[in-house]
Amino acid sequence: MEELLPDASFLYFCLAIGFRMNYSNRQTIALIALRIALGWHFLYEGLTKIFQPGWTSSTYLMDSKGFLSGFYTWIASHPSVLSAADFLNEWGLTLIGLSLILGLLTRISTIAGMLLLLFYYFSHPAWIGFEYIFPSEGAYFIVNKNIIEIFALLVICSFPTDKILGVERLIKRRKGITGG
Question: Quick one: residue 103, left, alpha or beta (phi over 0 = left, psi -120 to 50 = alpha)?
């Protein structure tokens, strides 16, 4: 894996930034609030799917448009693959949300969240001429809520607030590692 990091500059940046940041109080509060708000959104989306009897992503996937629509309809048309996708979606959202709220493994969860949101975006891209069964919350062209959340997760990945307030800080402190 280490051989891949220098070539994956985005991932390398997220993993290498470490403790070098000094934030003002306002910046710290804003970044932590953003992390927790994103976490709540992911957690709530996951829990509503887990606790809704019979929830499945089938209709959403069958409504896919764009260059990957064949892939998404293939998932929906194979019950075992759909079951796995539903499970990963429910629990991925839930665990990403918990991770962000708690400030635990935040970089991993931000990257996982960005990937999950990219899957959502490419299933239902905000491109001209695409109409979907489920109405969107607004009028979008290219940039929709998934893209905005991807960039918000990128901010959280780039500024490690879990080292300031979160379980990661407690773990580091318990091990005797201090940032600075």
Answer: left
Q: Write b or e for each residue in 106-144: b if 16 or more Cβ atoms lie within 10 A of its Cβ, otherwise e.
A: bbebbbbbbebbebbbbbbbbeeeeeeeeeeeeebeeeb
pLDDT for 42-80, tens place per residue? 999 999 999 999 999 998 888 888 888 899 999 999 999
Dist. CA 155–CA 18, nearest whole Å: 14
Structural contact between residues 42 and 100, judged by C-beta atoms closer than 8 angstroms: yes
Radius of gyration of the chain (CA): 18
> Six-digit token pair at 73?
């309809």
For the stretch 16-51, pLDDT in tens is: 444 445 778 888 889 999 999 999 999 999 999 999
